[in-house]
Specification:
The structure is a single chain. With 163 residues, this protein is α+β, with helices and mostly antiparallel strands. It has a five-stranded mixed β-sheet with strand order 1-2-5-3-4. A hairpin with a 2-residue loop joins strand 1 and strand 2. The N and C termini lie far apart (78 Å).
């Protein structure tokens, strides 16, 4: 007759710690910085994609080679881009250079915000908690719904006629 083993014995054999024991402390996350002292991340929103590089500096933000005030003329979009910096209290500590393509200005601003948040977590991993709590690390999944075959638009149908 086969010998039965307890769940604790099986867990120990598989290398899993029992539920009641204290887990080993996690190793600190190392920053991901390149040879030039920059952190890089990609951000996405709707159909827009941004590539963001951050490095220590005076707070200069350029988007596609232009100052942020020129590229994002509406103050709401500039505020949207700068939200991660304000949340992390790092508004004037980083120079940000980003390229963005696709979509409209609103989607591009959201893509830059997502990429900037990710780049900040790569540069300073301890900021991850604050940025995640604010919701800046989550990619917004909302997209334009596709047009269906046999319909004039995504949901619109042709007018029905009884006779």
């Amino acid at each position: 007759m086969a010998e039965r083993k307890s769940l604790a014995d099986l867990g120990q054999a598989m290398g899993v710690a029992p539920a009641g024991s204290a887990a080993a402390p996690a190793a600190p996350v190392k920053p991901k910085i390149d040879a030039l002292g920059r952190a890089y991340a990609t951000g996405r929103r709707k159909n827009a994609t941004s590539r963001v590089w951050i490095k220590r500096g005076k707070g200069k933000i350029t988007v596609n080679g232009k100052p942020i005030e020129t590229y994002f003329a509406r103050s709401v979009l500039r505020m949207l881009v700068q939200q991660p910096l304000v949340t992390a209290n790092r508004a004037a500590e980083f120079d940000i250079d980003c390229t963005v393509s696709g979509g409209g200005l609103s989607g591009q601003a959201g893509a830059v915000r997502h990429g900037l948040s990710r780049a900040l977590t790569y540069f300073e991993p301890e900021l991850r908690g604050a940025l995640k709590k604010a919701g800046f690390l989550t990619r917004d999944p909302r997209m334009v719904e596709r047009k269906k075959y046999g319909h004039p638009k995504a949901r619109r149908s042709f007018q029905f006629s009884k006779r």
